[in-house]
Predict the 3D structure of the following.
Amino acid sequence: MVKRKITQVIQGIKTSDGAGVNLTRIIGSPELNMLDPFLLLDEFGSENPDDYIAGFPPHPHRGFETITYMMNGKFRHQDSAGHEGYLQDGSVQWMTAGRGVIHSEMPEQTEGLVRGYQLWLNLPQKKKMIDPAYQDIHAERIPVIYETNGSFKIIAGTYNGTTGPGKSHSPVLIMDIYINKNSECVIPVSSGWNAFGFIYEGNVFSDQYLSRGQLATYGMKGKIHYKTKDSAAGIFLAAGLPLNEPVARGGPFVMNTREEILQAFSDYQKGNFK
């Protein structure tokens, strides 16, 4: 078996977004600007309401998809395309911004634990201006494979013959992996895909030792191997086929040229995001 080699290990930076939600930015940070086709990865998690109660009031996006995985907590999504969703423990919201959408994500709780991730997935150039769309994926729709070495939740893509419910515009694999102590597992990933694993619990060996809060990026060949010793480990894993296209960023907009970014700001200011 060819094992994928780790190419980089990063910790992320503490920051805030929305109306003051405290989070850790891992991809989209100075350490790792992007990992094609992934543009951003934020981890949020706190039992202190002051860290999340302000939420994410209405704001625009264009040119990519946002995937929010709520491990614990309750948030409500609303957008200008008329979509509404209720995020709760174990659920996923998958929003395709396309040509432009304004949305909000606001907490539906005033106390207790909120924990999860938001991942930005780039859209191919030819699909940047498609109509906005929304997938409200309840926890019971997400398949979980239980094996002697742990559990494998498949949010999107296919693992071990089981396909997750998330539908993307480019090939991806997104999973929540929990490995029991003194166990190991192998995750097949298509050759030529970029991949990362974020350790959200415990410690694990994968080409090198990784601990809680670290994200490892991998080379493009071989399978990803994880092995635990005296503690279990939780891993948020994503892999995808690189788009290999120019990327232009402007705040909440991601296009292919600076001119397209300026047009996005102009369209938003003119009220053309409906």
